[in-house]
Amino acid sequence: MDRFEGQGLVCWRGERVVFGGLGFAVAGGHTLLLRGPNGSGKSSLLRCMAGLLAPMAGRMAWNGAVIAGDTDGHRHRVRYIGHLEAIKPLLTVAENLALWSRLQGGSDDAIAAGLAALGIAHLAELPARLLSAGQRRRTALARLTLAPAPLWLLDEPTTGLDDEGVERFQRLIAAHCDSGGMAVLSTHIDTGVRGSELSLADFAVPPVAA
Fold first, then answer.
1. First vs last C-alpha separation in the chain
2. Which terminus of the chain has a lower count of CB atoms within 10 Å, N or C?
3. What is the per-residue pLDDT across 79-135, written as a single tens digit (0 to 9) for each?
């Protein structure tokens, strides 16, 4: 079973150290929930995990191999969805998924399956600029279904979702973990997803007095 872990991580953002000495571990089939107040570094940690932001110090490893030595290979095993959905407003919902599917090596069949999984098949031909916030979030989450990847990194994934959307998201996470995948979620609300928890408040670094 795959294992993803970090040790002694230090992150610098906005001219300050956000967290220091942080460690984490998550194995295939499991979910890690990131907790902490605004500004505690949840989004920054996810970006570090995705290889989009280099930590000031510390190491991350996949199955014991240090990721810093193979950042391109690591990105291929990651599906990252942040606050910004990266949806092209002039394309339809289906065209957006088709674009992501090509980038991720998915198939045309996967597009229909993704639309169905998030309950947005009826929006397939609608221009993305007309979507509501919840519909945009469902469209972004549909990217997770297009091609397999063992590590899902999700920043406030249920923002804007109604109860049905949250239930669909829960089923998506459960199926991913049941197949041996792992997920790391940043959230300040109860998504209904269960897993081990990591409090970033425990690794906060007090600001240095001027």
1. 48
2. C
3. 999 988 889 999 999 999 999 999 888 888 899 999 999 999 999 999 999 999 999
And the tokens for 105? 């090596």
What's domain 1-77+149-210's superfamily in CATH?
Answer: P-loop containing nucleotide triphosphate hydrolases (3.40.50.300)
CA dihedral 35, 3, 173, 24 (to 10 degrees): 0
* Phi, then psi, of 186 in degrees rounded to 5: -100, 125
The two three-digit tokens of residue 140, written as one number: 């972004």
Cα separations in angstroms, 191 against 73, 93, 163, 175, 178: 30, 25, 10, 16, 18
Assessment of whether the complete model's pTM goes beyond 0.85: yes
pLDDT tens for each residue of 170-186? 999 999 999 999 999 99
Altogether, the residues listed in the chain come to a count of 210
Per-residue pLDDT tens digits for 61-75: 999 999 988 888 898
* Cβ contact 7:167 at 8 Å: no
Residue 70, C-beta contacts closer than 8 angstroms, at least 6 positions apart: none
